[in-house]
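[agent] plan:
  1. take the single chain provided in the ticket
  2. run structure prediction with default settings
  3. attach structure tokens to the ticket
  4. add a short note for the reviewer (M.T.)
[agent] executing step 1
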Amino acid sequence: MAAESKSETAYRLIRDRIDSGQYVPGFRLVLAPIANELGMSVVPVREAIRRLEAEQLVTFERNVGAQVSLIKETEYLHTMQTLALVEGAATGLAAPAVTPDQIRRAREVNRTMRDSLSAFDPQRFTELNLEFHAILFEACPNPHILDLVHRGWNRMKVLRNSSFSFVPGRAQESVDEHERILELIEQGTDPLEIELAARAHRTATLDAVLAYSEEHKHHGGEDPAAERTASAAREAVAAH
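[agent] step 2 finished; step 3 output follows
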């Protein structure tokens, strides 16, 4: 096996820290400290950052340098709308191939999600949510649609904040909707109906986050803390 290049090593370290949340949105990526940590020159680190910039995980601004990308409300809106379409299609197309064992595993994950509501951890809930949906859409026979679904979920991971942090009441509704989708698949419901149910499930979270954002945007002027929370909510891109 060929040894990993220095650029690849730097890329993997930075990417892992972005994905884990160690490098938060707006975090400045200074070449020298990263290079020193890895025991290499700044050249491969710069190459890694350019690669991350091409993936839209990093932005470069004059007089500021490289920083982890900030995600705006419009980006959240567009990503969620797109994911609703492609994940809905993938779930509908996959439904006829979903096995009883997959239904059982998805239901176990959803049960864990429901049990976690009493001691709610938004980040853990979001991880379980991806696990649940992946069981249902990975059987999609169209690799192009499946690729778009993966891209959407990866885009959602960029911010590393859960929309359930801002609208935790949505979590209970989400697990209820999960059970409804499972029932439709078990009953052999027409794939189009399953697709529409999966799409509506996704857009319901989008609507909840945007409604929360709009409400707090109007009240933020009287309460700086509320405005900061609303701003965070408006910029939250997350799995749901």
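[agent] step 4 note for reviewer: The longest helix spans residues 191-219.
[agent] ticket updated
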